[in-house]
Amino acid sequence: MTSDVETRACDDDHQALRLWLRLLTCTNLIEADVRRRLTQRFSITLPRFDLMAQLDRCPDGLTMSELSKRMMVTGGNVTGITDQVEREGYVVREVMPHDRRVCRVRLTEAGRKVFAEMAAEHECWVKDLMAGLSEAEVKVLLDLLGRLKTHMVALKS
Amino acid sequence: MTSDVETRACDDDHQALRLWLRLLTCTNLIEADVRRRLTQRFSITLPRFDLMAQLDRCPDGLTMSELSKRMMVTGGNVTGITDQVEREGYVVREVMPHDRRVCRVRLTEAGRKVFAEMAAEHECWVKDLMAGLSEAEVKVLLDLLGRLKTHMVALKS
Q1: What's the CATH class of domain B2-156?
Q2: Which of A26, A139, A148 sits opposite B148 (nearest CB)?
Q3: How many CB pairs under 8 A join A and B?
Q4: ipTM score assigned to the predicted complex
Q5: Chain segment B110-138, per-residue pLDDT in tens
Q6: H-helix segments, chain B
Q7: From the list B122, B132, B151, which residue is nearest A148 (CB)?
Q8: Closest Cα of chain A to B92: distance in Å?
C-alpha cells in the first residue's frame, strides 16, 4: 500500500516538473521570437519595449522603484534602460513638486506614438505564435494559468 | 461587417496577448521562487543547477555547444558556469580522443550524487507551487502547452 502512495506521489512530482519545464520552454520560445522581431523591425531591445509598455499603461508615469517592480523581463537595470529611452526622446523624468527626492518617468507624446505602432505589430506576432490553439483553448489556458498564479501569489503572502 | 471582423480580430489579439503575459508571469514567479530556494538551501545559482540538470540526462556528457543550446535559463555564459562547477569537482572536461579540438563535459560521481539530492528537493518545491491545480488540470495544461510548443517549433522551421 505504501509503495502505491509513494509511486503515485512520484508520478505527481514528475507531472509538476514536466509542466514547469514546458512552461519555461514555451516562454523561452515566445520571448526569443519577440526579441528577434523587435530588434529586426524596430531596433529596440525587449527590456526597452517592456519599459515603454509599463509606462503606456500609466499615463501619470511611474517612479523608478515602481518601474523596477513591474518590469516583466530581465536584461539590464531600469536606470540604464531609462537613460537610453530618454536619449531617444520617448520618455522624460520629472521631479515631483511635493518631494524633490522622487522622480517619475513617463512617456512623451513621441514615445506614446512610437509605442502604439510597435505594440500593434507585437500583438500580431503573439497572435501568430498562439495560432495553434483555438479561442476556447486559449480561454482554458488563461483560466488554468490564472489559478496557478493565484495559488503561487497566495503562497508568497 | 468589416468592423465586426476587425473587432473580433482585435479581441482575439487581446486574448493572445493576455495569455503571453500570463505565461510570462507564471514563469517568472516559479523561476524567482526556485532561484531563491536554490541559493538558500544549496548556495547554487539557477544556471549552475540547470547545467548539472542537462548533464544528468546525458551520462556520456555534452560538448560546450550542445550545452549552450540546451540550457533553459539565461544568466551567464556556459564556459564561465562550467568553470565554476568544475572547480567544485562536480563536472569534468574531457578531450575527445578522435578529435582533440572538441571537449565534452560530464558529471563526476560527486556531481551526480549532489545533483540527485538537489533535484529531489527541487521537485518538491515545484510540486508545491503547482498544488493549486488538480492532476487532471495539470494534464490539460501539459497538453495545451505541448500543442502551443509544437505550433511554434513548426513556425520556426
Answers
A1: mainly alpha
A2: A26
A3: 171
A4: 0.87
A5: 999 999 999 999 999 999 999 999 999 99
A6: 2-42, 46-56, 64-70, 78-87, 109-129, 135-156
A7: B132
A8: 26
